[in-house]
Amino acid sequence: MDMSCFQAKSFFGIVQRIYKLFSGSTKQWEVLKNHVKYSDRKGLTLKSWSDTRWESRISSFKAIRFQAPQIKKALIHLMENTDDAATVSDAQSLVKCLKFDLLVGMVIWYEILYKVNKVSKVLQKKDMNIDDAISLLNGLITYFEEYREKGFEEAMIEAEKIAIEMEIKSKFHETRVRSKKKFFDEIASNEPIESMEEAFRVTYFLSIVDNAISSLKSRFEQFQIYGNTFGFLFNLSKLSSLDTESLKYSCDTLETFLQHGDNYDIDAVEFFSELQLLRKSLPEGTTKPNEVLEYIKNIHICFPNTWIAYRILLTIPVTVATAERSFSKLKLIKNYLRSTMLQDSLSGLASYLSKKKVLANLDGSSIISKFALQKARRIEI
């Protein structure tokens, strides 16, 4: 989503350049700290963003989003009080990049990443089920569809406030309009002339938001397939309110979904009878699928099909990970004792440690014998 247009790539590059400049030395970092300590949002610091950790992006943007005026003053201070030519050049270049279109993009990106990050963290919970995931994704899609209509004007207003504080003109940077070659049967006046603000809205704002909506809908459709199949088991109030025909249809649909050739995981007829009995015998206050599974745990002989269906339901993964972590297996093994190890050897060692349980069950004697023969320095006569 972040690379959906050229301006987005440039924006992410500027954010990373600001971090690298101030983190280049302790003296430059101290200059930044001295300026941002007067900000209303204390405790925010510049951070590098990672390609693999989604949350790192919102962390890196948050400091710039709410401390942009202070960061500009810190860059100007480096320009005027630093002897290093490279540092002065980098600071001057970044100050020139701090224009109104960058501020608008910054406000837009923070709004998008903040909302996505909030939903992403909830989806990574261990007790998250697909029903709640569908509801969250649907709500996020609805929010972005509304944001698509009104978000640009709101971002413009917020960016103008920041621009006033930074003493930047609230005007989009003008670039040369690319002319299109006209053929003999075309009329030049038919091509509309767009303002820089409208061009930015179309090529930047709409491109990013549409890309986000498309990605979310793709994931929502995958969850919706399971929702249509297991939906009547998610919500116990819905299960209790289903009439006989609707319940039979849902049981038949689930039986077909869990069919593997000529094998069936559940029997629709028996499953229908079990659910009729279960609806009447569930304790009051039972609202979640895991509570149903816990209830029939000791009496699953009476509800064999229900026992199978709810176990399948509750083991369908919502996300591929419970949470993101800032460390990796590679960081754990690459200590000072292995600082001179070549990349190929280090990658091989990391793979070995990641698959340690699998490799422990393999017989390595034949591999060792082949390796010894290939590396033998003496040839048998």
From TrEMBL:
It comes from the Eukaryota. Transmembrane segments: none annotated. InterPro entries: HATC_C_dom (IPR008906), RNaseH-like_sf (IPR012337). This is HAT C-terminal dimerisation domain-containing protein. It holds the Pfam family Dimer_Tnp_hAT. It comes from Dipteronia sinensis. One of its GO terms (molecular function) is protein dimerization activity. PANTHER family: AC-LIKE TRANSPOSASE-RELATED, PTHR45749. Residues 276-351 form the HAT C-terminal dimerisation domain.
